[in-house]
Amino acid sequence: MLSSPRVYYAMARDGLFFHRLAEVHPRFRTPAFAVIAGAIWSAILAITGTFEQLLTYVIFIGWIFYALAGAAIFVYRRRMPNAVRTFRVPGYPITPLLFVIAAAALALNTIVTQPTRAGTGIVIVLLGALAYLIWRKKTDRKHSRRGKIAPNAFIR
After folding, report:
1. pLDDT tens, 90-149?
2. What is the pTM of this model?
3. Closest Cα partner for 33 from 49, 9, 11?
4. Which three-class secondary structure state does DSSP give residue 85?
5. First vs last Cα of the chain: how many Å apart?
6. Cβ atoms of 141 and 135 closer than 8 Å
7. CB 70 within 8 A of CB 96
8. Distance between CA atoms of 60 and 117, rounded to whole angstroms?
């Protein structure tokens, strides 16, 4: 309840989600409508599934993204070999490699033992990605008609 509404707020502020979610409460200076929307969405999820189902979707998808984030260190080290490193990864490259392997094993375990829930989790992420692409295209078109640079133009 602390981070998700702020993600909704940031997406809405960038034109990638419902505009109303970018509104800030005049007195408390919080994304109050985004907090309410997050609470409603959480309630809908709680009503439509068991705790175990919801946990499986979230944890399964979470570990996929953790593995990708861990693998990113190898990509960045290759792309930017001379970059200043303010933090050294202990045991590099073994430590991050073991993490990526463990995260991938957890995701694979869910696919093997609970394929329906794993598939549902993947479908949810793909639907979210599709919604993002549609919103981004709509936002980019709107900004290009006005002659402005879209807020997310530098993401590409």
Report:
1. 999 999 999 999 999 999 999 999 999 999 999 999 999 999 999 899 888 877 776 665
2. 0.72
3. 9
4. coil
5. 29
6. no
7. yes
8. 9
